[in-house]
Each structure stands twice: as structure tokens, then as C-alpha cells.
């Protein structure tokens, strides 16, 4: 998939060092399930797994976000496609240097457009740490509705955190 500034593509083995680098940034890892640093060996395994999955089969698929003008990996968008192929979950990660410039919104919008218009999904959900106001704002900008707050839902990095739940129906997608 391409947008004005991005290419969303399958991961390649050569992406592992860049994946390890941005996932090793404490600011990027703060609200994520992994710890920083994110070792290169772990990134190599992750990239192999990402490359072996399918965007149209049930399970997790990770899109690499490439900044087209620089031909550089700048983040990723994951989709967990449910067994019924009508529902999915979405998440996103962007390297710090590319945050606040609309890249994540552009990438997630492109993936949502594919999920709703091409793959025919009925609903896509998203979840984030309640303190992650930037991720919550991104989902709201894209039309997601806040559907809930799970108090002290996740024990991560030594603390209990609240999770915000978001949902977007195909009938609400303007894309």
C-alpha cells in the first residue's frame, strides 16, 4: 500500500536493525509490551515471524511503515485478524524522530481503508494504556469511539495500568 509519503509493506530481514533501534528507545517502548533495549536477535526473530504471516489470514500481521522519500523504515502497524475474518484489532508504533508529523495517522488510515474496503471487516478495535494520550488522540482522529476503560487491567513493567478500549465500525469509516 502507498500513501502520499509512505509505503506499507511486508517486513524484510534487512529491517531488523532499524526495528531493534526504534523499539530500544525508552520513549517508544514506554507503553508497549516490550522492554528497552530491544536486542537485535529478538528483532531478527520478530522480522522473520512478521514476514511469514499473512494480512488476509486469521492471526497477527505486521505492516512495515517505510518513509518513501528516505526509503527508511520508521515504524509498524499490526493487525490481529479474528478467525471470522470480519473483526480485527490494530496497533501502531513509530520511531520518535517521526512522531508528531502525521505519519502514524496516515499509516493507520491506509491500513483501516484496506481492512474495511478491501477485506470487508465489520469492526476494528484498538487498545492503549490510558496514559498514552497521543495514541488515544490518534484513534479518535480516525473516528474510533471510546468504548471502555478497564481499570488496572494490565500488569506491565512492574505496575498495574488502566487500558482504554476503542472501536470503529465499517459504517463509520469515511475513508
TrEMBL record:
Any Pfam family matching the protein: Acetyltransf_3
Record keyword Transferase present: yes
Molecular function via GO: acyltransferase activity, transferring groups other than amino-acyl groups
Residue ranges constituting the N-acetyltransferase domain according to the UniProt record: 6-171
Keyword entries, A-Z: Transferase
PANTHER family from the UniProt entry: GNAT FAMILY, PUTATIVE (AFU_ORTHOLOGUE AFUA_3G00765)-RELATED-RELATED, N-ACETYLTRANSFERASE DOMAIN-CONTAINING PROTEIN
Protein name per Swiss-Prot or TrEMBL: Protein N-acetyltransferase, RimJ/RimL family
Amino acid at each position: 500500500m502507498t500513501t502520499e509519503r509512505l509505503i506499507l509493506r511486508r517486513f524484510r530481514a534487512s529491517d531488523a536493525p532499524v526495528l531493534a533501534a526504534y523499539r530500544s528507545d525508552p520513549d517508544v517502548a514506554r507503553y508497549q509490551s516490550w522492554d528497552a533495549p530491544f536486542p537485535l536477535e529478538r528483532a531478527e526473530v520478530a522480522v522473520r515471524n512478521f514476514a511469514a504471516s499473512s494480512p488476509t489470514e486469521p492471526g497477527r500481521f505486521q505492516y512495515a511503515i517505510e518513509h518513501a522519500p528516505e526509503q527508511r523504515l520508521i515504524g509498524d502497524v499490526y493487525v490481529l485478524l479474528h478467525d471470522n475474518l470480519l473483526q480485527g484489532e490494530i496497533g501502531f508504533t513509530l520511531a520518535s524522530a517521526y512522531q508528531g508529523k502525521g505519519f502514524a495517522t496516515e499509516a493507520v488510515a491506509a491500513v483501516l481503508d484496506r481492512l474495511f474496503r478491501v477485506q470487508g471487516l465489520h469492526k476494528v478495535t484498538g487498545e492503549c494504556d490510558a496514559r498514552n494520550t497521543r495514541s488515544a488522540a490518534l484513534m479518535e482522529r480516525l473516528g474510533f469511539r471510546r468504548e471502555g476503560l478497564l481499570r488496572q487491567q494490565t500488569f506491565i513493567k512492574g505496575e498495574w495500568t488502566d487500558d482504554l478500549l476503542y472501536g470503529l465500525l465499517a459504517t463509520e469509516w469515511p475513508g
